[in-house]
Structures are given as structure tokens and as C-alpha cells.
Write a structure and sequence with these properties.
The chain is about 40% helix and about 20% strand. It is α+β, with helices and mostly antiparallel strands. It folds into two domains: about 15-90, Phosphoribosyl-AMP cyclohydrolase (Ubiquitin-like (UB roll), Roll); about 110-205, Helix Hairpins, CATH 1.10.287.1080. The strands form two sheets. It has a four-stranded mixed beta sheet with strand order 2-1-6-5. A two-stranded antiparallel ribbon has the order 3-4. β3 (about 50-55) and β4 (about 60) form a beta hairpin. α2 (about 115-125) crosses α5. The longest helix has 21 residues, at about 165-185. About 25% of the residues are buried.
Length: about 210
């Protein structure tokens, strides 16, 4: 886990506390804001799960300790002054104590974050396929149906792009995206692997230029 060292952080400015923003590692959505002291930060680094400091109770608390909705920490970044933290996390459930995905009302994530929501839904269908689910059918038999549909939808998108309306092109692109995501999941893959490959190519292109 990539993290700043404790002595790189400015604990004194906030009276021993530093605000910690939890962000969904896959969707980019801001989930919640809490506070850490040196002890909770050390526990977080040691255990790989978000542990915060409660200002009202003056004690450490692990996110999800009672609900089970823990935050698995992938990485932690500090801001330029070392007095704020950004936690990249994988949430095990809703981050808000009211039961919502995020503690922030309205749209708390990038416009493309719905693709991550869809990716997670497809992943859930793979692990627990509901009876009669079309997505579950796409995932069955190593994705044979999904492979066929990807081919069909790719052709339909290409044809639509050559003379149909923008609305039709967007609709066909949505069909292709969905079926391609199902095909990836049938092979145990998801958007993160594709994004990683695109990032690798982009990095290589910048180095070559």
C-alpha cells in the first residue's frame, strides 16, 4: 500500500487531527470525511482498513465495525501541506450510516462513475446469478453469448455511425459497452484492467514523444 510516512504529516496544525477523505478507488466517488490522529493512522497502515478518531467520543473507531461496511484501503495520499489525507478505498457496503452509498447528497462522483456501478452490478450477477437474469445468461458458458453479442453490437454501432442520428449512435454504443463489460466479467476481468492497460499505453506514448 502506497502511503505517506507519519512524520511527513502535519499533526500539529489541527491539534493532533488530520481530515481524511475516503474516495471509492473504482468509481472516484467521494464517500465520506472523517478524522485521523497518529494512532488511528498507524492502525490503518497496519491493518489495511480505515480506522478513524471520533471527536465526539474521543476514541478510535473502525469504519464498519458494527455494520460490516468496512473500507479496505488501497492507498493514501497527502496534500501539499501534509495536513489532509485522501484514502483510496474499496467499500464493502454503503459508506453512510444512513444507508446510502456516500455521505454526500447529490452527485458525489465523476459523470462516468455509473460505469463502475454497472461493472459492480455485473460482478454481483457473476457471483450470485439471479434466475432469469439476462446478464447472468451473458456470463454463463464462459461468455459465449456475450462474445456473440459484442460482435453484433460492434457492427450495429459501426453502421449507425455512417448515417444514423447521434441518439442512435449513443444507443448502440451503450449496447456495445454493456455487452463488452459482461464479456470481460465472464473472464474474471473488469473496467479496472482495461483502464490500467489504457493508462500504460498513454504513459508509453508520452515517454516516446
Amino acid at each position: 500500500m502506497n502511503t505517506p510516512k507519519p512524520d511527513e504529516l502535519d499533526w500539529g496544525k489541527g491539534g493532533g487531527l488530520i481530515p481524511a477523505i475516503a474516495q471509492d478507488a473504482r468509481s472516484g466517488k467521494v464517500l465520506m470525511v472523517a478524522y485521523m490522529n497518529a494512532a488511528s493512522y498507524a492502525r490503518t497502515l497496519e491493518e489495511g482498513e480505515a480506522v478513524f478518531f471520533s471527536r465526539s467520543r474521543s476514541e478510535l473507531w473502525r469504519k464498519g465495525e458494527t455494520s460490516g461496511n468496512i473500507l479496505k484501503v488501497r492507498s493514501i495520499a497527502k496534500d501539499c501541506d501534509g495536513d489532509a489525507l485522501l484514502l483510496s478505498v474499496d467499500p464493502a457496503g454503503p459508506a453512510c450510516h444512513e444507508g446510502s452509498e456516500t455521505c454526500f447528497k447529490g452527485d458525489a462522483g465523476p459523470a462516468l462513475s455509473f460505469l463502475t456501478d454497472l461493472d459492480r452490478l455485473i460482478e454481483a450477477r457473476a457471483s450470485n446469478p439471479p434466475k432469469g437474469s439476462y446478464t447472468a445468461k451473458l456470463l454463463a458458458d464462459k461468455g459465449k453469448l456475450a462474445s456473440k453479442k459484442v460482435g453484433e453490437e460492434a457492427v450495429e454501432l459501426a453502421l449507425a455511425a455512417q448515417g444514423e442520428s447521434d441518439e442512435r449512435v449513443v444507443s448502440e454504443a451503450a449496447d456495445l459497452f454493456y455487452h463488452a463489460m459482461a464479456l470481460l466479467r465472464a473472464r474474471g476481468l473488469g473496467l479496472s484492467e482495461v483502464a490500467g492497460e489504457l493508462a500504460r499505453r498513454h504513459s508509453g506514448a508520452k515517454e516516446e514523444s
